[in-house]
Amino acid sequence: MPIDSGDTSWMLICTGLVMLMTPALGFFEAGLIRGKNSLSIIMQTFSGLAILSVLWFVIGFTLVYAPSYGGIIGRLDWAFFNEVPFKTSLGYAPTIPGVTFGTYQMMFAVITPLLITGAFAERLKWSSFLIFIIAWSLIVYYPLAHWVWGKGWLAKLGVFDFAGGIVIHTSAGMGSLAAALVLGRRRDFGPDIMVPHNIPLAVLGAALLWIGWFGFNAGSALASGSLAANTLLVSHIASATSATVWILLSWKRSKKASTTAVINGAVAGLAGVTPAAGYITAQSSFFLGIVLGLVSYYAILLLKEHWKIDDALDVSSVHGITGIVGSLAIGLVATSFVNPNGPTGLFYGNPMQLAIQAVGIAVAAALGFVGTIVIMKIINRTIGLRVEEHEEDIGLDIAQHAERAYVE
Amino acid sequence: MKLVQAIIRAERMPDLKAHLRSIGVGGMTVYSVSGWSKKRELHLQWRGQPVSYDLVPKTKFEIVIPDEQLDSVIRTITEHARTGSSGDHGDGIIFVSTIEHAINIATLEKDEKGII
Predict the structure, then answer these.
(1) pTM score
(2) What are the residues whose beta carbons fall under 8 Å from the beta carbon of A212, sequence distance 6 or more?
(3) What ipTM score was computed for the predicted complex, to two decimals?
């Protein structure tokens, strides 16, 4: 097929939108933690944007999308983007330049490991962070993305994941749970340290994430047109509904409607609808958004308040649990009426899809969880994971970066 | 009654605050301040270039206590604000002065009754 200028325009814009999500994630997270650690998490996300882009260019794209070694991992043909065409397309997206597909997917490979920054915030050493995101990309994300999106064995099994509920949110979410368990709680874990130091900054981050997610989900149609249009509506409705649920739940629990709750609810809805966004109707999305809001809210109560697992920004609930729910939802409410190339779920006559989705989720959850534990344990044995206690007291901005966010 | 003013390392504040509360100090005012003393400097960087600042960020707090609490308060502060480490900045200083009157605005209780 010839390169289509409309499709190409849309995908170039989407590449920018998804790129913006990584610094937006940094603002979102920084606003929700203490000021003395706010630069450290912005540093991690922004430098992650640079480092993981390089890694994708050098080896990531070819491991994920090049022709496969038996469905396990891509060959090295496209290392350094060699032979990736810019005047013609690749089979994955037949109407846009090959390099545009590769660059767009780069932004996904960048943000996925960086979602885990929310779990290990305020206590992980910078040097350990650097090794972690590279190792996690190579061991967890690249293989998993190849299996689902690069014509690997899970794709052959019939697992569907439109924009990354399995590949991204389930794996990074369960990785976050593992990271929080291996790393242990922050010092003085409790209400004293849960001080969102700049809520307007967090809201700015959430707003940029929300608009970026239009590129993330609707862009995953890999073309402009009706599927992208429906996907954008589906994504927005799930997010808005989930945010509304969070407003009501926070209002009910603390008698005051909460700003930090509504932005978390929006992100939970966006993360959860991601896998299903290109396969379901807007009406299904409305109900999915309600479920996503409820499960993410109560998952946090269970994991953080009841079990005292210190996933600082609740990535395991807001991304992991929602990613699992959204990926299962494909097996229930996906319909080929929305996407003729997509699956059909239980409610539209195909009960098998639910089981197939469950297999994909289980593989992603296991790889994300176990892979993270192994990587973190090895780092802990060698250079150590956590900063010294007094460094944690002083804050990572000064202790790890010799910089500070604010000067009084 | 005594006014105790102390300038300490900011990172020691949460721990010290909890201990002062536990020995019965009835209230506290806390400020973020910055200052210089002796040869202390704050060593940071600007785009990879090392930079030293003479104003070092600190936490200052004030408490007003009955005379008989003074010893235990001083002991608590020195115990929990001291790190003993050299480095960019010191462990701080305590000033003690005498207060003539205290009046609780809501209850109009005076002096020691007004501060507990």
Answers:
(1) 0.93
(2) A17, A18, A20, A21, A24
(3) 0.83
